[in-house]
């Protein structure tokens, strides 16, 4: 079965709600579900985070990153980190853990390498999206961070199905494959209870049209995806990032994209490092 047929089969399953998740995902989803409850108190949130060691480590790391700790006041307690970050960022991190675990226990070295590359790409897009939202598109930075974290969730799910559909990684992408990938992405985002504003932005992201000047959440994601140094291993590399940057510089006026990225480089790298599960 070639790539297109494999994608169509997975998309058909997804459309029927027949997603097959790895067992390791259960704990992360449970934590995320609890954090989604408006009645969850901050002390209860801290206990939930502490129940998942990987999440607890990332919460403290994010809280100490330049993005959330510009004054350099480091903390070591999960409770203090939870207070500093707030529920919006906590939910993003719980979702990040879920997305990372969605690929499951990948056994073949080449597939593990792809999963690692996909997560590195995800962290870069998420960090860049947060900066772009604050400095260029004037979207909510935390929503942009969350959108960046989930923008490849469908790809992680597809990696988890490689053993069942070996042809999934063979051959080149066809134009019809984008529809199948979007179908899988929609189903995974629904399973993760992703807010409507983000799922709507993802629809525009999958369509791939970047408005100039960039203004929407989808534009934020598209620009971050173009600029991420590490590309997704499951999609064709988008060419023309340098040319795109030059065009955007013209639309931004005095503050150029290059200068914004240079000024924010430490923040981006700090956030990328802290998101490495």
Notes on the structure:
The chain has helices spanning 3-15, 25-36, 42-50, 53-63, 78-101, 109-137, 141-150, 153-160, 177-191, 196-207, 217-227, 241-252, 257-263, 265-274. The protein folds into two domains: 1-20 and 104-277, Hypothetical protein af1432; 23-101, no CATH class. By secondary structure, it is mainly α.
Salient structural properties:
single chain; mainly alpha; Hypothetical protein af1432; 14 helices; 66% helix; globular
Q: Which secondary-structure class do the elements indicate?
A: mainly alpha
Oligomer: single chain
Work out the radius of gyration: 18 Å
Largest β-sheet summary: none
Helix content: 55-70%
Q: State the domain count.
A: 2
What is the chain-wise order of helices and strands? HHHHHHHHHHHHHH
Q: State the end-to-end distance.
A: 33 Å
Number of strands: 0
- In CATH, the homologous superfamily of the largest domain goes by the name Hypothetical protein af1432
From the spread of the alpha carbons, the general shape counts as: globular
Short structural description:
This protein has 277 residues and is mainly alpha-helical.
Topology readout:
Elements: H1 3-15, H2 25-36, H3 42-50, H4 53-63, H5 78-101, H6 109-137, H7 141-150, H8 153-160, H9 177-191, H10 196-207, H11 217-227, H12 241-252, H13 257-263, H14 265-274
Helix pairs in contact: 1-9, 2-5, 3-5, 4-5, 4-14, 5-7, 6-7, 6-11, 6-14, 7-10, 7-11, 8-9, 10-11
């Amino acid at each position: 079965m070639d790539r297109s047929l494999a994608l169509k089969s997975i998309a058909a399953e997804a459309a029927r709600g027949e997603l097959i998740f790895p067992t390791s995902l259960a704990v992360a989803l449970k934590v995320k579900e609890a954090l989604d409850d408006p009645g969850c108190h901050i002390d209860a949130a801290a206990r939930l985070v502490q129940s998942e060691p990987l999440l607890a480590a990332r919460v403290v790391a994010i809280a100490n990153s330049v993005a959330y700790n510009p004054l350099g006041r480091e903390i070591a307690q999960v409770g203090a980190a939870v207070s500093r970050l707030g529920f919006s960022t906590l939910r993003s991190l719980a979702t990040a853990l879920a997305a990372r675990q969605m690929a499951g226990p990948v056994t073949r070295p080449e597939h593990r390498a792809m999963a690692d590359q996909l997560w590195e790409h995800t962290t870069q897009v998420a960090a860049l999206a947060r900066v772009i939202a604050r400095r260029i598109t004037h979207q909510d930075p935390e929503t942009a961070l969350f959108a960046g974290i989930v923008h490849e969730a469908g790809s992680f799910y597809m990696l988890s199905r490689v053993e069942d559909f070996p042809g999934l990684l063979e051959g080149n992408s066809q134009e019809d494959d984008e529809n199948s990938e979007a179908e899988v992405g929609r189903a995974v985002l629904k399973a993760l209870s992703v807010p409507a504003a983000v799922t709507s932005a993802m629809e525009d992201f999958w369509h791939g049209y970047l408005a100039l000047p960039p203004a929407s959440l989808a534009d934020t994601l598209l620009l971050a995806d173009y600029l991420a140094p590490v590309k997704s291993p499951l999609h064709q590399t988008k060419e023309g990032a340098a040319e795109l940057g030059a065009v955007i510089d013209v639309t931004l006026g005095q503050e150029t994209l290059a200068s914004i990225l240079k000024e924010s480089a430490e923040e981006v790298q700090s956030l990328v490092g802290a998101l490495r599960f």
